[in-house]
Amino acid sequence: MTTDLHQHDPVHGSDGPDGLAALDGLVSHTSVDGIPALYAPSSGNEITAGLFFRVGRADETLATAGVTHLVEHLALHRLGLSDLHYNGATANAYTLFHVTGSEAEVVEYLNSVCAGLRDLPMQRLETEKEILRTEAAGRGGARQQMPLWRYGAQGYGLSSYTELGTWGLTPDQVRHWAETRFTRDNAVLWITSDHIPDGLDLTLPAGSRFPAPVATSALPTTPAYISGDDGHVVLTSVLRRSTAAAVFADVLGRALFQDLRQEGGYSYSAEADYSPRDADFATLTAYADALPKKQDAVVGGFVDVLARLRAGRIEQAELDSVRGKLLKVYDNPDLGAATLPSYALSLLLGHRILSPEQHKAELNAVTVQDLREVAREAWRDALLQVPGRGVDWAGLTLAPQRSTAAVTGTRHQSLEDEDVTLVIGAEGVSLLTPRGPITVRYDACAAMTARPDGARSLTGHDGFSVTVEPTLYRGVTPDRIAALDAAVPPQATVPMPAREPEAVPQPRERTPAPPAGGGRSTWGWTTALWLVGLLAAVWGLLCAVITGDEASAADPEWDAVVGVWIMELPLVFATWKVFAARRARRRS
Q1: Phi/psi at 267 (nearest 5 deg)?
Q2: Which residues, 6+ apart, have CB-to-CB distance to 209 below 8 Å?
Q3: What is the sign of the dihedral through the CA atoms of 569, 570, 575 and 580?
């Protein structure tokens, strides 16, 4: 272990009022083997330590998704079965290894993690891949799809997707990721102790501090909405990080709880959360559940709460209550130790660091007007997931459901639906549907999974996907698949295992295009014409009786007979059309 006791590191802004110097007297700082370290005493018998790295899921691509998680698992393998309370966590913008125990146990854990990072046990790679796929099978939830609709299939949107890299990543790729991202210059250590324990060996390769990924957008217009599962209403919005924004999240959560649960009785859970995304922005997430018959009321109440806050109809008592709760954090006798993870993450991401006095001053300065401005900012960037019907009435726009253009190329009609056509072109693939095209361009392909039977599934950076199943489209030959493979960038291709024969999809009975007006409409018109014909026949006979002489009702007037047959002609024509349509369906 090497320890550098320089208290002011200009690289991390420690000389300024927002740097580590602001924490003097509360948190101590040094470096261990070149890794910045924060430490503060705790009154407990055990100590807790965490080692942050500025790398997470948002740094990956869709094709390599899961590589950071794999490194985390492999680094922890050497610990095996242990009585230590330890774990690892991979988030969007960081990875954290943390442990609680005696000083000796914490030293053992941290040394083992760094030894594992220096020399990953690659013999475990395939086993850990399988473990990650099993872990992923248990994920999900109402909020799972929100990131992909906001960001697409890249950056912060990757948390919505499965970890495709667990199928194709090689040992060299995983090793390179560890060597370049899990470095001493891309890490921050924190320990709840009044000193740095002896015996630490956190030797890691030199590297660079990677900034958080630049956010992408898949939403051309906000506020926007998408349809989701029954029983859940979710809102996300990206806000500039500020003390007022953090206070607003708490005010919003309380307002939703009061209106939707306490007063309306519509929801059991109604809450809001504020989570830092990077140095400058945070994600606001609000959620409420609902029974199916109460869904419309919950959506309406959700929108009404946000409208009330945007209008500034916030009671001073609401603000004071939230402010009081947040200020109580500073009554903690172990304040330095309790705030270490937050300070370490701010240092890692490059966010300003406030002393307790500075933060309390900002909390006390927040006004109702500030909250109104944050509410308006939140609504301008809002993405709302609602069950069932849309919410255009509230001023939100449906998020894009189709691509804006299609590529040209060879056309392959669906064997299941004659209204659907697959296009494989030189620039990309498109699926042409009655509602519009879905297109993935090769130069914007985030990933393409490839199976030995010829199946390909392409996902674009915008989140749209096209699946090419040779068994489901006419004329998708091996030559067409080979042309597609040659056009997709190699780094975006993810090899997938072979499927069992019964898992390869086969075409269902083809859906014919219905006649104009629909099939049921044709039969309806036919039935109506039969009735007209029947009435015409009855009318003709009545005319014959009325106009004929007393001697012969069996000898009708010729004009009545001609009238009957003229009215029967539409009936004959409609019957011919129905049988012609039947023959056409049999030929297809």
Answers
A1: -125, 155
A2: 54, 185, 186
A3: positive
